[in-house]
Amino acid sequence: MMEFKVSVIDRNVFLFSFNHEADVRRAWDRRPWSIKGEHLILKKFRAYLSLNEVDFSTIVFWVQDHGLPLNKQSKENIFKIGGFLGRTLDVDLVGSRGGVWKIFFRARVEVDVSCPLYAGFPLDRDDQGLPMLWVPFKFEKLGNFCYGCGRLGHDLRSCLEEESQRIVKGNVFQGNYGNWLCVENNDFQPGFSPKVLGKLVPTEGDREVGRSVQKSNIVEASLRN
Questions:
Q1: How many angstroms separate the CA atoms of 95 and 66, rounded?
Q2: Which of residues 175 and 66 earns the better pLDDT score?
Q3: Which of 119, 129, 182, 207 has CB 3.0 to 4.6 Å from 173, enough for a Cys bridge?
């Protein structure tokens, strides 16, 4: 068990003081942390810094990408995929079971908290004469976030964006985000599991499914073989 003290520095800003360097490393390596579902952004503090110089604009996640074809499963490509989401810090090529064929790969990524989370990306396979393939992401230790705009720090009902309000009012059957982005949930975004994409924008009956492939939450990629 880690030994530490907590001091309140400012509104929603806390200082954690550890008795042992090993506990500092353990807390740092096990990021991200959350308290009652709310994300706790950890930053290393140096005595020569002022509080205003501590940058709380990013948070670190392990992000899994599922369904990547065998010929794309390389360290270089996982680094590139991590770069779609933010700054890639590390990759894990052996974190999943399955022998040669991995179920998923992981990238440790520093993500800008002001930007929407990425739900996945369509993999371009034109050079192989194959249709585009949707590769979904799942976030480890993902706490509360808005199912409307995909950002951390607030929930759907308090979101001011138009898409979120349409979901709250029941005018959209399915939004761009949901608990399928969490590793603990085995489901994938409805209509966008690891599968071949026909038309990128789905429709269903008389109700709108949602702009699941809007530019804010996907990137289009060409990866090395």
A1: 12
A2: 66
A3: 207
